[in-house]
Amino acid sequence: ARARILLLGLSCASCVTAQKSDAAILREEMELMREQVLAQQKVLEEQDRQLAAMTAAEDALSRRLQTASSYVDTSTFTAKITALEATDFSYAGAMDSIWILLCGALVMFMHAGFAMLETGCCRAKNCQNVLMKNVVNVCVGTLGWWIFGWAFAYGGVYDSKGKLENTFIGTQQFLGIGFLEFKDGAINPFADAETSTSPALS
User: Fold this and answer.
1) How far apart are the first and last CA of the chain?
2) Residue 180 region, left (φ>0) first, then alpha (ψ -120 to 50), else beta?
3) Which phi and psi (to 5°) does residue 19 adopt?
4) For the segment 47-56, what is each residue's pLDDT rounded down to a tens digit?
């Protein structure tokens, strides 16, 4: 009987201990879940603050109706458009001039290359003669371009669309006439100093 009572007491004690350990585990799990819930609440609050800030920024940057102080009159608008067109024209003229200079430099280097090629293909006693002919070729070509080359290529007369009137060849500005303007004893490279550049630069 005593053994049975002792076994019963031990079993009851083990049951109590097991119940206490189960309650401790449940308590720890509940504490962990509470911490996770609090962390999620903080994240949600931070997201709400960020959303409110973004909404306020969008409202600040949203389109407003034009006020009387922000109106632009016709004269100011026309002046700005004219200034933009003039700037675009000046850029186009500069690019055209750079392109022509680059092509001219390439032609000069071509002459040097042909001089080397022709010198290498002839006897030594004829080298000076070949080089002289190449120099004369460059000089005559430069004079020819100044006398009538530019006039034929770009001289005009041009129509309202910027194309040659005869659709074939230019008939003005031979010998560089119209490139420069002599004013007050000085050479002015502008045909109209206030509005446009010389044909040599445009």
Assistant:
1) 125
2) beta
3) -65, -40
4) 888 888 887 7
